[in-house]
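Protocol step 4 of 6: structure prediction from sequence.
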Amino acid sequence: MRILFLAHSFNSLTQRLFVELREEGHEVSVEFDINDAVTEDAVQLFAPDLIIAPFLKRAIPASVWRRYTCFIVHPGIIGDRGPSALDWAILDAECRWGVTVLEANADMDAGDIWASVEFPMRNASKSSLYRGELTRAAVAAVRLAVARFQGRVFRPVPLAEAVCRGRQRPPARQTDRQILWHEDPTHTVLRKIRSADGFPGVKTELAGRELQDFDARPASDYSGTPGDLLAVSGPAVAVATADGAVWIGHCTDAESAHPFKLPASLVLAEETLALPTVAQCCEDGYRDIVVARQGDVAVIEFDFYNGAMGTEQCERLRETYVDCCKSGPRVIVLAGGRDFWSNGMHLNLIEASASPADESWRNINAIDDLAEAIIRTRDCLTIATLGGNTGAGGVFLARAADRVWAHEDVVLNPHYKDMGNLFGSEYWTYLMPRVCGGAKADSISAARLPMGVQEASRLGLVDAVVSGEREAFQAVVGERATELACSADFDRELQHKVMRRDTDEASRPLADYRRDELERMRQNFYGFDPSYHIARYNFVYKVPRSHTPLTIARHRRVSSPEVRQAL
């Protein structure tokens, strides 16, 4: 079938559905919801069999839903209505939530029901639940709804006839999640901030400044006057609650020169000068890198907020990796966070720096240093385990490991080019041709499309796919890593790795790849073409798109049925 996506943006859920439906053989095209005229034009150009709205912030025009079947992917249980479904589920401490596929009609979220899938709630932020449990439920619900639509037998259930646990709710306001520092215990503060993580954040007053808070974690062993700042650990600031404290990892200040999401310790730099500093490696610190040793297997877990890796984070991770190698493991597992493995450079920190070009240069060199350390490792085997999505430089950094294992739900974006046509580094010109050939490497980069792990496996970007629940992923890869470390073939495989690296180095030194990549990146950062700086600014400041990229708007590249059929 020809399926047209109408979406506010190409977010994680939209990408996952795009990947899954294409994998099932459907022709999928995407149009951003800019205005009614653009939507109507897209429908006319593509002539879809079905329209799906995975992520919309307004109603589909009546001129469209009256002529075509339109599925709305609503992030709520049956009967739930309103734009803040998952926010309210967290605020109300729901035990189970779900996704419902509705047919668009004149009333928002009130159409006939084509499918609904529920999931158990996890004690986590809205953004994490959205990327994890909710997305998985959405994929299952959309697949079921599409199959029912294709079968032409299923009768969707009118909302009035459905058994409803949900109800209509208003948009969640700041007053609904207002933090009362002197009254709210830690678990309540965490729930309120987590209900708004990702967007819009929770307004609070900290040190006399009005901020919006994100990325909250419990801060054990801390207490003080509720609302007071207590300590600093890496990007985070500890704030006292009624019965303890929380780490606030990131926040925004609408009145500052950089009114976008940044580490809380940076935003509150002056206000925290006199506070004690807690090392991130300490148990009571804001830990984003954790090393665990299980026999001959060392696991380095790095959980950076939104997968962004700033210069300092890359340097710390490299130091951790080098120290880990010295401890003599046979296998090192590089495990990112649950939501992201890595998304490459930290664009927000770059935008906020005194010289974005200089900070971009420092950042890419720090990532390259980390990638080089992994590539040059000779005394053990390395595995990158992708339990969360990864994009841009993160994909290439993962490929620096000897093996890449990924969970079946992961989406990869192996390209830089949407960020102002960046060339990319992390030794991708060396690593990618080794696994998929030079022509395919160039094609993957130029396509600018997300891919699922099945496609990534066929192309050689992923070596093994792990199925099952996300909660069990790290346990499964830990068992497999132990099996590898104990394998009778281990010494032979390690020897083969060393010989191949020596052969490659003799053929062309690794330094040559880095020099050539960085020369192209230098032009991106310091050259006359401002595309990268404009794209980064638009990304950081969330500037709405004025058009849909042709890479995903297939109908705008191929508008005639004759040409479409030929393809």
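Step 5 (inspection) to follow. DSSP finds 20 helices and 21 strands in the chain.
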